[in-house]
Structures
1.
Amino acid sequence: MEKEDILKNLVAFSTAENELAIKEANHLIDVFKAIFSKEVEDYSTNADNNESIELVDPNKDELNIKINAAIEDFQKKQKEKKDLKEKKEQSNINTKKEILSRFKDLIDNKEKIAVLINGIKQIREDWKNSGDVPRKAFYELQKTYSQLNESFNYNLNIYKELKDNDLKRNFSLKNQVIHNLKALKDEKSINKVDTLLKQFQNEWEEIGPTFKDHWEQLKKDYWNEVHAIQKRIHEHYTKLKESSKENLEAKKKLIEKAAELAKAIPDNHKDFDAKSKLYKELQDEWKKIGPVAKAQSDKIWNEFRSHFDPFFEAKKEFYNKQKEASKILIEAKSKLIEKAKQIASDATANSSTQLIKDLQDDWKKIGHAGRFAEQKLWKKFRKECDAFFEKRESSKGARNQQEKENLNSKKSIIQEIIDLKEIDSSSIGSLVSKFEAIGKVAPKETQPLFQKFEKAVNEKMRAAEISAEEKNKIQLAIKKSLFSTASDPERAFNDAKYKITKKINEALKETSNLENNLGFFSVSKGKNKMLDDFNKKIENQKKQIESWKQDLKKLKQAYSQK
């Protein structure tokens, strides 16, 4: 359920009167608490290491604030209603007792039948309008009222004054009430059964007398149904009470687990991540357990949450410190970007590349500024470095003739590889060595040329019977050729590393999304194929990630040996 719907429904239920609506509102509150708890956890986990995404504190989220206000308003109004209801019910008890006293006086009165009939009409009307009382009090008061009705209907011989058609009508109406009571067996909602029972009992009492010959059996049938329904209601609430006790014990055990878990606070990202998963498992278990008595619900939930707070506070502090450390690194690298920008703006054909290389060395010395920030900063820094080299190269007027010759020679080698018929490690290795020995090409030609070269060699190796050891040697030689080809090896290395790392991160994100989506599939026959396709896609993605990781490893090895 969306939070907007929760807010809308809570506002709608703010003036709820019946138990079903109130129960639904309380359920919505529990759902929101679970959502809010998850938002707090996600915020604590991601807010500190996700500089690229602006996250909103759940406690400051406008919608969350509105929902909490709606919850407070609902609970306040419900308390007011409860207090008012209890006061009103007590008043109604006194009213009903006063009506019963009047009823007794009426029965003892020796007035004319017409007076008595008018009196009973007023008493019944007053009784009907006297309002609700607590269940226990209702049954006793209703029983007394029924007995008085019997005394009035039979002892004062009202039946003699009623017409035969009225007796028949009342007989039919009372049988209809019995029929309606029997139909309650099929009603699953106990709250509805309880409400309808009171309604049908009032209807029964409002119906006038019927044939005396049928009365005893009719009354017996009526009370059999009433008692059976009352028994069902009693058993339901007894069972609910027992279930609440079992749920309470189960939740107490989870509190013990949470208390044990809270004894040790981690001091590193790995342990914080692992323990966060354990806390989430406890929360999931808690949600699966049914409700407890309302009087204990808030207390036991607060006790459970109290063992979470120290951990998440420590987690927040840990990542805040990391964030502060990252800020220092971010500021340092931002300054290098500004320096590179200034150098690029002043670049000429005679500009020394050493200025940029010095900045690149400084960049590596500063250290990693966090996964998300590092990627953004490196992209900006590389852009300024590229601008420097491009501006310097453009001022030369023409490409270096030797680089043109090297480019053509390397293209020829690539074509030789493509046209190679007899494929073995010796022939491929020889051409790779020739390619590496030719020399450098223009910076903008480096990556496209190397990609064509690598693709051609890999395709030939896939078609040849070459040992894994030989393949690794050749692939390492391929990576080394990138640095022999590039006029700026460090730039070429960083570019290649960035592209591979970007592919890995994007694939990891996609794999995570696919794994999360697995939970939407049931185990039914109709969805097995789709589920298999999903699992196959995930497996292929993981294989591709592993392949890219190996490429990155070989790239770093080749650069270290250049």
Note: Residues 212-261 form the longest helix (50 residues).
2.
Amino acid sequence: MYQSRREFLKAASAAAISLAASGTPLAGRTLGLLPGLDAYPHAGDPLLEELAARALEAAKAAGAEYADVRFSLTRLEDILFFSLTQYAHLRDSEMAGVGVRVLVDGAWGFTSSTLWSADEAARLAREAVAQARMNARGRRRKIELAPPPPPVKGEWRTPIKRDPFDVPLAEKVETVWALMEHASRYNIGARNANVGAGAETAYERRETTFASTDGAFHTQTLYQVRPSYSVAVVTPKGRAGRSSDVMQPVAAGFEAVSEAKLVAEVPRLVEEALMMVEAERVTPDRYDVVLDGRLMTQLVGLTIGTAAELDRVLGYEANAGGTSYLAPPEEQLGKFQLGPALLNVRANRSREGALATVRWDDEGVEPEEYEVIREGVLVDYHTTRELASELSAWYGQNGRPVRSHGCSSSEGALSVSMLCPPNMEMLPGRESATLEDLVAGMKKGLVICSGRVTVDRQQLNGEINGEMVYEVKDGKRTKFVHSAEALFRAPELWKSLKAIGGPGTQFWSGVSIRKGQPSQECHFGVGAVPAYFEKVAVTDRMRKA
């Protein structure tokens, strides 16, 4: 165990620090080796417009029907430590990139570089056009873009109180050290257990400038804080860990960490971890199951949020991200009854604090709010400008314009933009039911308060690996059990939905997935309420083969 904050800080500072920015000439400005991001042009610098104009002009001159260019400046800091193993790690990375995308003969071309100069921008554009012409020879379908959004010039930034990268490292460590220290000194009496704690916090800031041949030019700066805090206990009976639900991934600044009440919940986390070690194993059976809001965010995000990505639905992600059980559109939209009428899920990229919140997506589209599930029925998918045209018949039938929902995203300008889920929100019920109200209505069942949801490549078959699980008889929690694993097929599980929590029970968290070739990570926010499902198959995941 580190004996002091100073000792830990010294260990963390000695960890590997990687910088991934290249020295490049910028239209007469020369950057030295490994420049910081401050050396690059930021929002409001006329050089950005000059570089964008050179790229777009070169693309049009080479024959592009449409072109866009993105500049991104990304900084990522990851702090990780575990008290039981005395492990500390710090990674601080920077990346500058520019990417040019063009449409030629109904096919995409994309090139990117870490070099920022007028000549490089023009070269990238010409290379992207040549690539698109080659891709057009083997295309199976002609790409048609939905109508362009109104051209916008402007600037936007995630609302924050403190930029994490303006906060001294010592203060970041100090903020979370108290959790580790308090857990390690927690009095567990005579239960012969060791208690430790761990934390990992990733801070990310990405500034992206976008310009297109449609006339758009804007810059936005996005912040994310993705924390994980937990305590662990080790006893002669075994080991268990309990993660905090106070801190969730958010689009915010350092205040999301500094204002969290972590120390106050350490006793609860330790006691619950001890309960997990000492609990009986679950008896396999079919149970009525209540899932809390935290688990429901995972279930909604993976079985509805990702399943409704139109590229998966159409099979365009089959080799990488997978497919979707919500296919094909012509048979499912407006017809597929996923769940009862009390199931309503909508999508947006505007909720403050949610991970996918932006002013514009990576195609310059201002996102809109839309329904995905209405009274249990599938009514829409997530789209980009390329994919929206695939639903023109459906939108026409419903008197809606063909437009992108604004779901294009990427890890930065060095990566091609692709469809990523927006924020997903499972709407609360009309009645003011709480989680305990749902539990009170059970005769025999389980309430699963934490765990992990996993799904297959169709987003169809899945497992809910319960951690904090209580047995319920006649509306009362009787005992704690462990190793409960609920097995499901998404449509069957959603059809078994009997009741949901009301206003005031909604829980917001974040979900991360990987898709695309090369693979990229997508982060999006999910809000959900506790839910009651009937007759769910539950097995003992620790059973012997």
Note: The longest helix spans residues 118-137.
3.
Amino acid sequence: MPHSTVVIGMLGSTLDRGVSARRWERWRPTVALGQQEDLRIDRMELLYSREHQGIADTVIADLELVSPETKVRRHVFEMKDPWDFEEVYAAFYDFARSYPFDPEHEDYLVHITTGTHVMQICLFLLIESRHIPARILQTNPAGRRQENPVGTFGIINLDLSRYDRLAERFRTQAEGDADFLKSGIATRNTAFNTMISRIEKVGAESAEPILLMGPTGAGKSRLARLVYELRRRRRLVQGDFVQVNCATLRGDAAMSTLFGHRKGAFTGAAAERTGLLRQADGGVLFLDEVGELGADEQAMLLRAVEEKRFYPLGADTEICSDFQLICGTNRPLEELAARGKFREDLLARINLWTFRLPGLAERPEDIEPNLEYELERVTEKTGRQARFNREARELFLSLAVRRDAAWRGNFRDLSAAVTRMSVLAGGGRITTDIVREEWERMTESWRRLGGAEHEGEEALLSSVLGPDARKLDLFDAAQLACVVRVCRRAHNLSEAGRLLFAHSRERKRNVNDADRLRKYLAKFGLDWESVTSFGKSRSVSN
């Protein structure tokens, strides 16, 4: 048995109007539905407000003349404001919930030509979400003038799964945006690529705060700016990208820099200052090293993020600023909050979207593509092109992925190394001698910066075990020394675990790097605090 065709539509209070005989000379969209030769309508659900009862009576009578097989059912549909999105959506939603749809026996078309634009949008959304199991019916007059009483019609199916080419276009755009966030670098680290894909989606869909965690030089600032550029390309922001390193803010200067001040607010405030939060209105504010903010600044920042308003220093009038907040930190904010150094409510507000950027040592497979990227950057800056010869390139990459390559400054170290080698390259060719010279320079720098991290093995173990360090087997001593160095380099237990178990963790179903490291240290009577605090030594457990 063929399905019945049911049309659901709003009465057009203007387009469907007409009582004189001349109304038949005009195109009236609801009446015209019954005049279509290729469209049989078994039932029409006509929605209208009580004040348009007269128009409804005329339209229904005319439909009976042109399409006697069409049964018309009336629905009084009251709304105070047909342009109020919330009210209109709620009214249509209630209608959809109460209507006895029977898709197995009836085909539904929703006529969206009549009604306000808000009504059309709400109906579209309800059809797309399948609250109304229907296709869209659109009608149009035959020409520019509405003198043809019939016009034309078209049926639109919102099942986007049918449009493979469209889906492929969206997929390609998303991949392009993810590539944009990676600065066009063909990274090979699976975890990093997955993280970038998540950030791309969040950056495109959400204006909530984003927290970027990771060691110094991991690329937090660059990624924050790229997220801003991505949102600007999609016309999601119109304001500026405003950046500040919170570690440089102290005292009244911190409050003034962030929130602005009025003239005379404090000694030295000779003129009014806008403040960075106001400058970021309509754009993105990036607070790098947010864990360095003082308690007062944290409290004011929390209110500014939640309410989009704040008081400049010394002001009696609030300032409004609507910005997206991106925070960066190389410190474990959870630990700071536990010690009372960072507000728990602020942390809860800014870590809705949290991403940890791995250091360069955790992404050895990405050193090669980033090497090419840094060479191109040097060329853009200096106008001179420098390239490795084959032997030099192989030598640098072999050294760069060694376990003793600290990369303490992460990508900043890599960028500085490439810059120095490029400057020293005679005729634009980086040779093996230049690579060896640069590697000696970097390793010496890491030794100086590392302090105890790079001290001799015996001294290192003595600092945590005391005289009992001599009781260790050579194998245990070498292994424990490596673990201690990694712990002192890392910011917390979890990060140290990730560094130590970077490859074996991928083969485990349940990953708990911190617990694995905790149990290993316990074998020697050690814990995180005793290893990283350079404090009292402990005896070896036998």
Note: DSSP finds 21 helices and 15 strands in the chain.
4.
Amino acid sequence: MRWSPTAQAIPEVKRSYTTYQPSDLEPRKLHGCLLGGIAPRPLAFVSTVNGKGEVNLAPFSYFNVFSAQPPLVIFSPARRGRDGTTKHTWDNVQEVPEVVVNMVDHQMVQACSLASTDYGTGVNEFVKAGLTPVDSEAVQPPRVAESPVQLECKVVKVESLGDHGGAGQLVFAEIVRMHFRDDVLSDAGVPDATKLDLVGRCGGDHYVRASGDALFAVPKPLATIGMGVDALPEDIRTSRWLTGNHLAMLGGCEAITEDLAPADRRMYATRDVTATVEHLGLITTSIVSKKLAAGLEDLILDVKFGNGAVLQNEQEARALAQSMVDVGNGAGMRTSALMTDMSVPLAWSAGNAVEVKEASAYLKGDEGRHPRLNEVVLSLGESLLVQCGLYASKVEARVALETARDSGLALEKWAKGIEAMGGDPKAAEHPDAILPKAEVVRQVRSPRKGFLAGYDVRQVGMTVVELGGGRTVPDAKVDPSVGLTSLPLAGTSFHSGDPMVTIHAATEEDWLRAERRWLNALTWSDEAVQAQAVIGHEILASS
């Protein structure tokens, strides 16, 4: 079976469905199906007052924004399912047609839930839930001070959908004032999803938190015209691994370049767009095929494990190393691999320009060379030189490498390589004159006394990405100036207030966000910590 717009992308998967007719379901089950299946839903935490001035506060997940001109939200304080009676909110807007819609973030979700208790008439849920009322500017109901977004509204229309239990009671409310807490706004003055930390309602007792890894970006197909799924090569359209979602992502590209590593393009389309990034066969074929295509006779691979690596488990990483070594040797290319630990950073810096600068400093000997980086460089080099037959022993090979490094020969070769690829060779020796610099460069201070026990290295990498040094969407621009420098070694002793690391950021806001992520990536110990060896096992061809 071939993929088509009307067929499933993975024909092997058989899907079955349970079908209901709403009128056949008893109210409780119908309610559960609707609220469980249509989720997540934003929460309107609505404050109202009655004719006596008594305040009510209640959350509703039958809610959304439906118009910008005029700015209009609609929510539904549906009739109680048990007896069909109306909610206090509905009763109040009949008397005072004004509301405040307060958005709910994670810090106030428990209070919001408590306020949903069916208290009696006249009970102030602000008091019950421990929330702070703030006078509104244009309407009578108060705002919730803890809410990051507060919308003062005039009720322009109400519409009842029935007098039976569960019937919707629609409140059409036009926004007349909007209040946004300053720390949730972007530089453009609009709410930033990564700062809001809002929650949404799902079925039953479940909520969803819109923050961290729960957030992801999907570029809107407005700036470019995607070529469409129908324009993809047939072997991609009919892939056993790609779903319709993945195919649509590829179809969003304007074109596919056919003349640059065409086979690898397709392998990476499978790896990076899908959840098969860690598939050993795909990784092996992608990496080894390019080396074979380049005509290499000898190859030494650096296969990493630890929390900063793609394959964090050492056993899995070793299996990948063995796979690549065996395939390389089987194809006639002498291949071996070193297992290297990536549970702590391998350099003083992380980022684009800052890493180039560190490479320059390493070759020039301008600064103290990072011991882990130095060991990886020399170990890989000596293994390759011995494997090629240029030296009889790793000791002799290491001496030759150190001589090339310290004499300036390696720096000279690097400069020639940069020039050969169209770059400015001055970047090798004088990177500061060539490379961009970040606007905000400032140290992070240690929050406590103790020993740095370790890192979540992946989070360190994501700090660089969040600063703009990597891509979260395919077409995003990379800021080469941002990153981290002076990364401390595991086992380093700190006093509270000691400088720890330097963050290079485009804005103050980015710097502060990076600081928080950096501090969350660290683990501490009150006792001295033994540094872990950077070089693990050497992997040779299977016998």
Note: The domain at 22-214 is CATH 2.30.110.10 (Pnp Oxidase; Chain A).
